[in-house]
Amino acid sequence: MEAETRAPTHFGSPLRTSAFRLALAYCALFTIGVSVLLGTIYLLTETALSNEVDHVIGIELDALADEYDREGLAGVTAELTRLNETWGRARAIYLLVDRRLQKLAGNIEKWPFGSEVPRSTWFEFTVESGRESGMEFHPVRARMLTLPEGYLLVGTEVSQRRVFQDRFRAATLWGIGGTALLGALMGFWLSQRLLARVRTVSGECERILAGDLSRRLPVSGASDEFDSLASAVNRVLARLDRQTGVLRATFDSAAHDLRGPLFRLRGRLEELIRDPATAEEARAALDRALQDIDSLQRTLAVLLQIAHAESGAPLAESAPVALGDLASEICALYEPAARDQGLTLECDVEPAGVIGNRQLLTQLLVNLIENGLRHVGRGGAIRVTVRNVGRTARLEVADNGPGIPPEDRERALRPFVQLSTKSPGGSGLGLSLVAAIARLHHARLALEDNAPGLRVVVEFESR
Amino acid sequence: MRLLLIEDDEEAAHFILKGLRESGYTVDHAADGRDGLFRATETDYDVIITDRMLPHLDGLTIVQLLRQQGRTTPVLVLSALGTVDDRVKGLRAGGDDYLTKPFAFAELLARVEALLRRKSGPQATTVLRVADLELDLLGRRATRGGKELDLTAREFTLLEYLVRRAGQVVTRTMLLEGVWDLQFDPQTNLVDVHISRLRQAVDKGFEKPLIHTVRGAGYVVRGD
Asked: Do A329 and B104 lie within an 8 Å CB cutoff?
């Protein structure tokens, strides 16, 4: 027995499986996708919001400029005061100052740029608002209009926009983080699931390796890729199981069947040594010993053929064989022997070609005919027919002997099973060799009831 | 007649050598493949008997090398590998005959004799004669004492096989292989049955039988 390299299929953590790595890669890709999406939404929304703020400021400033054109500075002041006192636009900021930057009207206290007048028209600044708890700073976006007597500032407190920005940013980060976490969890779960199935399969394989060839890999019934793999492996196992079964039975019973003649042989030789006989008696005993050896040799040869045929090696020396001609030749070979036994051996063949090994096919025919010769009594008949049936060549060897009861038919094909003790002489290997040869030729073998007798049918794929 | 036996199993070699020498042959012995090949190339043997599995150089390689050297010495391969495939391989390598161990010594002797005969070359003849038996190979007809014998085609082939080897022992296995192309021994005594039928046709009614049984070996056709 070769030293079994026991490389136990042990699995590390699920984090090291290919399923998990794949899930991580997907997760990263997905996170990037989500980031780009959220980022784009953020930018677009932000722009839209800014534009709206600017638009509103623009409209209001235009309205105030019109007021100035109509009523002058006093009109603008009055308007600002009115806006200030009524529920005007939410978060609106107004400031009207004179040329010396002193406040004339508005809702903020002082000119936000110190003593300077900014050059641009749009700007952002912060205003402070005193509360009891302390100062608050409000971001403001504003536009300035330069009047002959002063400057008008119209803006919007945009702290809400800031809040929006912050929230959106937080949401984006949470979203990305969540996605990543979910992906990782999903990957972990997936790899756990795959790992569990692989573990089951490999555990089952370990048990099979340990010698229990009757076990099979579990098939979940989901018809997924695992199932198709498992059923393929199961088919391999079934075949191995059958072959080892046949071989084991062959060798078990070989040991049994070879021991019989060996024991007789040994007995004869020991007797000769113990009890010196006359030369003639000694010669007779040695003659019988040689016959024992011949019978051992035949059994051994057939065993080897079975083992060879069962090994599943492809058919050596395959060639077209005229099955009909072969059958009638073998019939002609056996016809005189059958007649001597008081049997009739008939042959009725059609020309039929099969692909096969001529010697093995000859052996198949010989074994079937010899099986008949052994089991059919005087006055019986054996009939060999070869017919083309559809796409198959059908060989039948039928007799009118005792036959084989249906429940024993499968057993009869196994090595060393002698169903009847009445007709000695057979090694019990004949039909099992027939079965092995049939299998090797991918032929269908059936034992049928010939009513009365046995009919062995072998159907070959026609050439 | 000088033979070479290449066999590493001492006891087997001893019994084969003894038997062959008792039968009147001069036999050399080589106990491994290299020595065997050396002797086979040095001396012109009439027949070489070689085991298949040998130390240093296996029997089939020896045959192949000899054939490459253009030597046509008949080779009988002995082997414990007995399946049909092994036999085919053995013959394909250039062996002239293949005998599976264990075998009866008579079987080996008969085959060696057959190979020696073959070496003397087949006679290009159309008529075979033994005593008053005459076989017309073209017409596939046999007569004895001028009287035509009633033979089936297969019986004629069997008789031809025996007559071609007249005076030489032919074993049952040789007949199964040579006449019926059966590479295995069936359980039934087929050959005996066919020979007894052939005897009915050939020897019945004649004073002197031509087909003789050789105990423990096989049959021989002899005229005197």
From this structure: no
